[in-house]
Design goal:
By secondary structure, this protein is of the alpha/beta class. The chain has 12 helices and 15 strands. A hairpin with a 5-residue loop joins strand 1 and strand 2. One manganese (II) ion (MN) binds next to loops.
């Protein structure tokens, strides 16, 4: 039974929730710095929990801090339909990356409550811990443990730049739950609403992205070791300059990505230079290469070209090089049935829509390995994200949440 197109979320209430959440962990330029397992993350979790409980949901938290807010179905034993994303942000993040997916899920529940719509399957709204992977690599860490990709102890031993351990920080903010992660949580399907974080939808004037695939990714942490020495008195021929090596690897990553256009991207976003003194030639540089492609063969070919190139650069500069894989997932093909539900919802509601490949990684990419999963995307201004100036319109937020609502409720089954 197709849902009535009048079944729509309350766009103002969703927008108000987004703005209220954005007040927690504010950035310095209008965005957010609510990094995972910080006090601000803890505060945002408490706000989300209060809202969920006020909406009649029961909250469970697992041992990785993943939050599951359940709306009962008329058939409680049926596997729930999950909807959600992440509340943690980049250090200079926007107000909508991840947050729109979590609060769009909450708004979906609030709307069903308003209209007293019951579904056969329960609905669970999720906040996944540490999607961003900035403070603790890799990204999508807790959804990865939930999906059985990472081992829990390995994840909890991850440390941040100050040497603080993930497991200790989770305890410190009081959000280590008692539910064993990943166990006894059957999933009928999962839908994640997310801003596109790219320019396609806005450039083409399209309301909704029906996400059919996601790019694959490698995060390669490189350590180049040369020799610290005086920038003034060391002759050029005697230098073992790790900083020069890092510059050449940066250029190499860009060149390799450009060689595989249009199906590749590459950059280095994280850099540590030692001893980082104005008049000492860098003795050691540690940095992370981020390469991505929707094509696994291209992704692997890029990695091989870059690793071979690093050896050549190290040899030429008489420095030592080591490469550690600190993040990886293969390109993702989302569940055709769930993707069709998203497409049908957009059609029913009369939104313009197009199939897209997600450039960014998402928790849905891991959950797709264990349950039927799909994503809904809305445009963002100038395709900008991972920048405090990240912006969307109320209309885009509402359209995305309405498509999410219809896809989820169709899948969960409405009880007349
Ligand atoms: O890196 C990503 O794609 C995601 O934003 N964590
Ligand atoms: Mn995100
Ligand atoms: Mn992000």
């Amino acid at each position: 039974m197709p849902l009535d197109t009048n079944l729509q979320i309350n766009g103002d209430r969703l927008w108000d929730a987004l703005m209220e959440m954005a007040e927690i962990g504010p950035g310095v330029a209008g965005g957010n710095n609510r990094q995972t397992l910080t006090d601000a993350d803890g505060e945002g979790r408490h706000l989300f929990k209060r809202w969920c409980e006020a909406a009649g949901l029961t909250m469970a938290v697992d041992t990785m801090g993943n939050m599951f807010a359940r709306r009962e179905g008329t058939e409680p034993d049926l596997p729930p339909v999950y909807v959600g994303s992440h509340l943690d942000t980049q250090p200079t993040g926007g107000k909508y990356d991840g947050v729109l997916g979590v609060l769009g899920g909450l708004e979906l529940v609030r709307t069903l409550n308003d209209l007293d719509v019951r579904t056969r399957h329960p609905i669970v709204v999720v906040n996944w811990t540490n999607e961003e992977g900035t403070r603790f690599a890799p990204a999508m860490l807790a959804s990865g443990v939930f999906a059985g990709v990472h081992e829990e102890g390995w994840a909890k031993d991850k440390v941040d730049a100050q040497g603080k351990r993930f497991g200790d920080e989770l305890k410190r903010i009081g959000w280590e739950g008692d539910e064993p992660v990943g166990r006894d949580r059957p999933i009928k399907a999962l839908f994640e609403l997310h801003i596109e974080q790219g320019p396609i939808l806005e450039d083409e004037g399209i309301d909704i992205g029906v996400v059919t695939h996601g790019q694959g990714l490698y995060w390669l942490q490189v350590t180049l070791a040369g020799k610290e020495s005086h920038t003034g008195s060391t002759p050029m021929y005697k230098r073992r300059n790790a900083g020069l090596g890092m510059a050449r690897v940066t250029e190499l990553v860009h060149e390799v990505a450009m060689d595989f256009q249009p199906s590749a991207v590459g950059a280095i976003g994280h850099v540590e230079v030692y001893p980082n003194s104005r008049n000492i030639i860098p003795g050691r540089c540690v940095f992370t290469i981020d390469i991505r492609s929707p094509d696994k063969a291209i992704l692997d070919a890029m990695r091989e070209r870059i690793e071979d190139g690093i050896d050549v650069i190290a040899e030429a500069l008489d420095i030592d090089a080591s490469v550690d894989e600190v993040g990886h997932f293969d390109p993702v093909t989302f569940d055709p049935g769930c993707v069709a539900a998203v497409r049908k919802a957009a059609q029913t509601l009369g939104y313009t829509h197009t199939d897209v490949v997600s450039g960014a990684g998402h928790d849905a990419c891991w959950i797709n390995r264990i349950a039927p999963t799909a994503m809904v995307m809305c445009p963002c201004v100038d395709g900008l994200s991972h920048n405090e100036a990240e912006e969307i319109t109320r209309e885009w937020a509402a359209a995305g949440a309405n498509v999410l609502l219809h896809a989820v409720v169709e899948t969960a089954g409405v009880v007349a």
